[in-house]
Amino acid sequence: MGKRKKQAKVLRIFRKVHRTTGALLFIFFFIISISGLFLGWKKNSNGYIIPKTQKGTTSDLTKWLPVDSLHTIACTTLREEVSPDMSIEIDRIDMRKDKGSVKFVFVEQYMEVQLDGATGEVLSVGKRRSDFLENVHDGSILDDYLGTGSFVKLTYTSVMGISLLIFTITGFWLWYGPKQMKKDSRKKLHSAT
């Protein structure tokens, strides 16, 4: 088989792999691209995707209230301002020393309460849509729904990462292959004359 026929065969294979991968995973690439776009803009959404980090009175940790006191204030605030039936299970505590504030992020409904670290004053109560988007983006939303630990997330991110690598390689070859074939044809033509 000649070099040109081999190149054409490889090009056909890459085109088929590229097209098949795209068709099979279209919806997942769509979800990842849309959620990624929103996540990229989260800090520029005027507090809609993620609440803005508020500024407390001091960054001196020695003047801050104990974490258990801040926790009590955050839980009380959540139940008073959002719902008395809401779970107060904490996902994480995000201390922003430089801002003088602390965020209590709750598991249920992606809610957060921001407090002044020193005074315990409630600075904001808001929904963290970014956490929901992150869970959609990496597939962990299905793990949460199905109770599968991190199995779906690991499988999903592995499949999507490998697929993106395949897309990159096949896409490059679909661009480069025809150029190389033309170049080889010109060389052959010049050497024949």
Which short descriptors sum up this protein?
membrane, 193 residues, 2 domains, PepSY-ass_TM, transmembrane, alpha+beta, Nuclear Transport Factor 2, Chain: A, transmembrane helix, 4 strands, 58% helix
Write a structural description.
The protein is of the alpha+beta class and 193 residues long. It folds into two domains: 3-41 and 148-192; 51-127, Roll (Nuclear Transport Factor 2, Chain: A). It is 58% helix and 13% strand. The chain has five helices and four strands, in the order ααββββααα. Strands 1-2-3-4 form a four-stranded antiparallel beta sheet, with helices on one face. Helix 1 runs antiparallel to helix 5. The longest helix is centred in the last third of the chain and has 42 residues, at 151-192. 16% of the residues are buried. It holds the Pfam family PepSY_TM. The chain crosses the membrane at residues 21-41, 154-176. InterPro entries: PepSY-ass_TM (IPR005625).
